[in-house]
Design goal:
This protein is α/β, with parallel strands linked by helices. The chain has a single domain (15-325), classed as NADP-dependent oxidoreductase domain (TIM Barrel, Alpha-Beta Barrel). 35% of the residues lie in helices and 14% in strands. The chain is built from 12 helices and 12 strands.
């Protein structure tokens, strides 16, 4: 299949509007895991996503404490070079091997970035990372200028093709931009977490910085079959048990908003999941959405977002539902749907 693509800012990369998110396939046994995960299911899910036309996978060193990258590496090794997807990964979360359940530290020291890059290249089995991103702002006292200079050097050395950041605000983006163009930003963005539409996404649109949003289905809340009972059944080491969005009173508001998407999904002959993801893609400045899956069947549940164009009436209906339910925070409606420069429609 051919899916529509958009240019990732001025990086030279063209990416499909949805990409495969490899957070959950890292498995359980660490502080932000999703519970047990079968590697065979993970590989099948990624293969299916590629068969359906997706051309990029987003992972991170910290997902499963290296395991997600290893599984992605297994996939890459079984594919001919011409059929391999673009691979995006991240650094800056350093874990303690002696205590896997301890929260990783946010470290962007130059020597740590370089060490992490080499480890990611090794786990993925590649010579160059297509997009390398800082996962979170540093909390160890490192000036972001020192961190970003290290990223620039990795690009110059050919180990990294495009350089981006995740979870950065506008002041940090501007400090990086002053040294070298920021190719992409990865913010949290969904019908529930809408704050990035206020400042970060418009900044990126102005500066030709691509935006790939994460958790567009709010980690499963904005899917067709999620229920209050499902929360009770989550694995003991599933991080969502601790998330305020999965607890009352937010949980009921979030599921009420999800239910409001059902008539829209029926009109388009698609799923609630696809509507939720397509809503993020309707914001000017958003390049693509990272969507996770633990099985091939889950990919089928949201792949329709890549070709779903929500109408102005749909967007009005969703904005009304956001206000009525009181779910989440941030702007409620994109000014105009669609993004210029989209290819493959």
């Amino acid at each position: 299949m051919t899916l529509p693509t958009r240019p990732l800012g001025s990086s030279g990369l063209d990416i499909t509007t949805v990409g495969f998110g490899a957070w959950a396939i890292g498995g359980g046994g660490w502080s932000f895991g999703w519970g047990p995960q079968d590697d065979a299911d993970s590989l099948a899910a990624m293969r299916h996503a590629l068969e359906l036309g997706i051309n990029w996978i987003d992972t991170a060193a910290v997902y499963g404490l290296g395991h997600s990258e290893e599984v992605v590496g297994r996939l890459l090794r079984e594919l001919p070079a011409g059929e391999r997807p673009l691979v995006f990964t991240k650094c800056g979360l350093v874990w303690d091997e002696r205590n896997r359940m301890a929260e990783p530290r946010r470290v962007l020291r130059p020597e740590s970035i370089r060490k992490e890059c080499e480890a990611s290249l090794r786990r993925l089995g590649v010579q160059r990372i297509d997009l390398y991103q800082f996962h979170w702002p540093d909390e160890a006292g490192t000036p972001v200028e020192d961190s970003w200079q290290t990223m620039v050097r990795l690009v110059e050395e050919g180990k990294v093709r495009a350089a981006g950041v995740s979870n950065f605000d506008v002041p940090l983006l501007e400090r990086c931009e002053a040294i070298r163009h920021v190719d992409s930003l990865q913010p949290p963005f969904s019908l529930i977490r809408r704050d990035a539409a206020e400042r970060e996404i418009p900044w990126c649109a102005e500066h030709e910085t691509g935006v790939i949003v994460y958790s567009p289905m709010q980690s499963g809340l904005l899917t067709d079959n999620f229920t209050v009972a499902r929360v009770v059944g989550l694995a003991p080491d599933d991080w969502r048990r601790r998330s305020p969005q999965f607890q009352q009173p937010a949980l009921s508001r979030n599921l009420a908003l999800r239910d409001a998407l059902k008539p829209i999904a029926r009109r388009h002959g698609t799923t609630v999941s696809a509507v939720a993801v397509a809503w993020t893609l309707a914001w000017p400045g958003v390049t693509g959405a990272i969507v996770g899956a633990r099985t091939a069947a889950q990919v089928d549940g949201w792949i329709g977002a890549a070709t779903l164009a929500l109408t102005a009436a749909d967007l009005d209906e969703i904005a009304t539902a956001i206000t009525r339910t009181g779910a989440g925070t941030g702007p409620t409606r994109p000014v105009a749907s669609g993004v210029t420069g989209e290819r493959g429609r």
